[in-house]
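ok trying this again, last paste got cut off
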Amino acid sequence: MFGDKTMNKNFSNPMDGSCSIPADYAAVIMAAGGGTRFHSGSHKLLTRIDGKPILIHTVERVLSAGYRTVIVVLGYQAEALAALLQDIPVEIVLNKNWERGQSTSLQKGVLHLPEGTRSACLVLADQPFVSINTYRALARQQEEQPDKIIMPTYKGETGNPTMFPQLTFAELRSQSAADSGGRRLLKKYETCLLETNDPYVIRDIDTLEDFRKYTEN
Protein backbone atom coordinates (compact mmCIF):
# COMPACT_ATOMS: atom_id res chain seq x y z
CA MET A 1 0.00 0.00 0.00
CA PHE A 2 2.86 2.36 0.68
CA GLY A 3 6.60 2.49 0.62
CA ASP A 4 8.90 4.34 2.96
CA LYS A 5 7.36 7.60 1.84
CA THR A 6 3.92 8.24 0.32
CA MET A 7 2.09 11.48 -0.45
CA ASN A 8 -1.71 11.66 -0.68
CA LYS A 9 -3.26 14.79 -2.18
CA ASN A 10 -6.97 14.14 -2.69
CA PHE A 11 -8.29 15.59 0.58
CA SER A 12 -10.09 18.92 0.55
CA ASN A 13 -9.13 21.01 3.57
CA PRO A 14 -12.08 23.18 4.67
CA MET A 15 -9.67 25.73 6.15
CA ASP A 16 -7.78 26.37 2.89
CA GLY A 17 -7.45 30.08 2.24
CA SER A 18 -7.47 31.01 5.91
CA CYS A 19 -4.27 29.35 7.07
CA SER A 20 -2.34 31.07 9.83
CA ILE A 21 0.52 28.56 10.01
CA PRO A 22 3.63 29.67 8.04
CA ALA A 23 4.13 27.63 4.91
CA ASP A 24 7.64 26.63 5.99
CA TYR A 25 6.39 25.09 9.26
CA ALA A 26 5.64 21.36 9.31
CA ALA A 27 3.83 18.98 11.63
CA VAL A 28 5.14 15.52 12.52
CA ILE A 29 2.45 13.22 13.90
CA MET A 30 3.88 10.25 15.76
CA ALA A 31 1.56 7.30 15.28
CA ALA A 32 3.98 4.36 15.27
CA GLY A 33 3.66 2.95 18.78
CA GLY A 34 2.00 -0.30 19.75
CA GLY A 35 -0.25 1.18 22.43
CA THR A 36 0.59 -1.69 24.78
CA ARG A 37 -1.23 -0.11 27.75
CA PHE A 38 -4.55 0.11 25.89
CA HIS A 39 -5.48 -3.59 26.26
CA SER A 40 -8.51 -3.61 23.96
CA GLY A 41 -7.60 -6.20 21.33
CA SER A 42 -7.45 -3.58 18.58
CA HIS A 43 -5.13 -0.72 17.71
CA LYS A 44 -5.68 2.29 19.95
CA LEU A 45 -5.56 4.73 17.03
CA LEU A 46 -8.23 2.77 15.14
CA THR A 47 -10.63 3.09 18.07
CA ARG A 48 -13.52 5.38 17.22
CA ILE A 49 -14.76 8.45 19.05
CA ASP A 50 -17.97 9.93 17.64
CA GLY A 51 -17.72 7.46 14.77
CA LYS A 52 -14.22 8.49 13.72
CA PRO A 53 -10.83 6.82 14.45
CA ILE A 54 -8.63 8.62 16.96
CA LEU A 55 -5.88 9.05 14.35
CA ILE A 56 -8.24 10.84 11.96
CA HIS A 57 -9.39 13.24 14.68
CA THR A 58 -5.76 14.20 15.26
CA VAL A 59 -4.84 14.54 11.59
CA GLU A 60 -7.90 16.65 10.83
CA ARG A 61 -7.15 19.04 13.70
CA VAL A 62 -3.61 19.56 12.42
CA LEU A 63 -4.75 20.16 8.84
CA SER A 64 -7.56 22.46 9.90
CA ALA A 65 -5.10 24.53 11.93
CA GLY A 66 -3.38 25.32 8.65
CA TYR A 67 -0.39 22.99 8.36
CA ARG A 68 0.30 22.27 4.70
CA THR A 69 3.15 19.85 5.36
CA VAL A 70 2.01 17.02 7.62
CA ILE A 71 4.14 13.92 8.14
CA VAL A 72 2.55 10.89 9.80
CA VAL A 73 5.03 8.34 11.13
CA LEU A 74 3.57 4.82 11.25
CA GLY A 75 4.94 1.55 12.63
CA TYR A 76 2.67 -0.90 14.45
CA GLN A 77 -0.19 -2.01 12.16
CA ALA A 78 1.01 0.50 9.60
CA GLU A 79 -1.05 -0.93 6.74
CA ALA A 80 -4.32 -0.54 8.63
CA LEU A 81 -3.55 3.05 9.62
CA ALA A 82 -2.27 3.96 6.14
CA ALA A 83 -5.60 2.81 4.70
CA LEU A 84 -7.35 5.48 6.78
CA LEU A 85 -5.08 8.17 5.32
CA GLN A 86 -5.15 7.28 1.64
CA ASP A 87 -7.34 10.24 0.62
CA ILE A 88 -5.86 12.78 3.06
CA PRO A 89 -2.97 15.10 2.06
CA VAL A 90 -0.32 13.81 4.43
CA GLU A 91 3.06 12.21 3.91
CA ILE A 92 3.25 8.72 5.35
CA VAL A 93 6.63 7.58 6.66
CA LEU A 94 7.25 4.06 7.90
CA ASN A 95 9.35 3.55 11.03
CA LYS A 96 10.50 -0.06 10.98
CA ASN A 97 12.23 0.45 14.34
CA TRP A 98 9.14 1.68 16.18
CA GLU A 99 9.60 -0.88 18.97
CA ARG A 100 12.81 0.92 20.00
CA GLY A 101 10.81 3.88 21.23
CA GLN A 102 9.28 7.24 20.44
CA SER A 103 12.58 8.91 19.61
CA THR A 104 13.00 6.67 16.55
CA SER A 105 9.72 7.99 15.16
CA LEU A 106 10.73 11.56 15.83
CA GLN A 107 14.03 10.93 14.05
CA LYS A 108 12.23 9.43 11.07
CA GLY A 109 9.82 12.32 10.82
CA VAL A 110 12.50 14.99 11.08
CA LEU A 111 14.60 13.24 8.42
CA HIS A 112 11.70 13.70 5.99
CA LEU A 113 11.14 17.40 6.65
CA PRO A 114 11.29 19.46 3.44
CA GLU A 115 14.42 21.52 2.93
CA GLY A 116 13.96 24.97 4.38
CA THR A 117 11.53 23.94 7.12
CA ARG A 118 11.89 26.50 9.93
CA SER A 119 9.93 24.71 12.65
CA ALA A 120 8.40 21.31 13.27
CA CYS A 121 5.38 20.76 15.49
CA LEU A 122 5.73 17.41 17.24
CA VAL A 123 2.24 15.94 17.61
CA LEU A 124 1.22 12.85 19.57
CA ALA A 125 -1.40 10.91 17.60
CA ASP A 126 -3.25 9.93 20.76
CA GLN A 127 -4.13 13.55 21.61
CA PRO A 128 -7.10 13.90 19.25
CA PHE A 129 -8.78 17.00 20.62
CA VAL A 130 -6.03 19.58 21.02
CA SER A 131 -7.66 22.85 19.97
CA ILE A 132 -7.03 24.29 16.52
CA ASN A 133 -6.45 27.60 18.32
CA THR A 134 -3.72 25.95 20.40
CA TYR A 135 -1.86 24.79 17.29
CA ARG A 136 -2.06 28.30 15.89
CA ALA A 137 -1.02 29.96 19.16
CA LEU A 138 2.06 27.74 19.34
CA ALA A 139 3.02 28.70 15.78
CA ARG A 140 2.55 32.40 16.53
CA GLN A 141 4.78 32.07 19.59
CA GLN A 142 7.39 30.29 17.48
CA GLU A 143 7.35 33.23 15.06
CA GLU A 144 8.04 35.57 17.96
CA GLN A 145 10.76 33.33 19.42
CA PRO A 146 12.24 31.49 16.43
CA ASP A 147 15.17 29.96 18.32
CA LYS A 148 13.24 28.57 21.26
CA ILE A 149 11.35 25.34 21.78
CA ILE A 150 7.68 26.18 22.40
CA MET A 151 5.74 23.96 24.79
CA PRO A 152 2.10 24.39 25.87
CA THR A 153 0.92 24.30 29.46
CA TYR A 154 -2.48 24.02 31.08
CA LYS A 155 -2.82 25.27 34.65
CA GLY A 156 0.95 25.17 34.88
CA GLU A 157 1.33 21.56 33.69
CA THR A 158 3.42 21.02 30.57
CA GLY A 159 2.00 19.08 27.63
CA ASN A 160 2.05 18.63 23.86
CA PRO A 161 2.23 19.39 20.95
CA THR A 162 5.65 21.01 21.04
CA MET A 163 7.36 23.26 18.49
CA PHE A 164 10.99 22.48 17.67
CA PRO A 165 12.86 25.20 15.72
CA GLN A 166 15.23 24.45 12.87
CA LEU A 167 18.34 24.79 15.02
CA THR A 168 17.33 21.59 16.88
CA PHE A 169 16.81 19.43 13.78
CA ALA A 170 20.35 18.05 13.49
CA GLU A 171 20.27 16.78 17.06
CA LEU A 172 16.75 15.41 16.70
CA ARG A 173 17.96 13.36 13.73
CA SER A 174 20.86 11.90 15.71
CA GLN A 175 19.39 11.58 19.20
CA SER A 176 19.65 8.39 21.21
CA ALA A 177 16.75 5.94 21.15
CA ALA A 178 16.63 6.36 24.92
CA ASP A 179 15.79 10.08 24.58
CA SER A 180 12.02 9.96 24.35
CA GLY A 181 10.48 12.93 22.56
CA GLY A 182 13.60 15.08 22.56
CA ARG A 183 13.74 15.50 26.34
CA ARG A 184 17.47 16.15 26.33
CA LEU A 185 16.93 19.05 23.94
CA LEU A 186 14.31 20.53 26.26
CA LYS A 187 17.06 20.78 28.87
CA LYS A 188 19.74 22.01 26.48
CA TYR A 189 17.80 24.69 24.61
CA GLU A 190 15.74 27.49 26.06
CA THR A 191 12.10 26.48 26.20
CA CYS A 192 9.19 28.90 26.16
CA LEU A 193 6.17 27.70 28.12
CA LEU A 194 2.93 28.93 26.57
CA GLU A 195 0.00 28.84 28.96
CA THR A 196 -3.26 27.80 27.25
CA ASN A 197 -6.87 27.26 28.27
CA ASP A 198 -6.78 23.89 26.50
CA PRO A 199 -6.96 20.88 28.86
CA TYR A 200 -6.31 18.50 25.97
CA VAL A 201 -2.64 19.48 25.77
CA ILE A 202 -2.08 17.44 28.94
CA ARG A 203 -4.46 14.59 28.07
CA ASP A 204 -3.62 11.62 25.91
CA ILE A 205 -5.20 8.20 25.46
CA ASP A 206 -2.88 5.55 26.85
CA THR A 207 -5.39 3.24 28.52
CA LEU A 208 -9.01 2.17 28.18
CA GLU A 209 -9.76 4.32 31.22
CA ASP A 210 -8.33 7.34 29.39
CA PHE A 211 -10.54 6.47 26.42
CA ARG A 212 -13.65 6.22 28.60
CA LYS A 213 -12.92 9.65 30.08
CA TYR A 214 -12.73 11.12 26.57
CA THR A 215 -16.01 9.57 25.51
CA GLU A 216 -17.79 10.60 28.71
CA ASN A 217 -16.91 14.28 28.22
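PB: full thing came through this time. The two ends are 36 Å apart (CA to CA).
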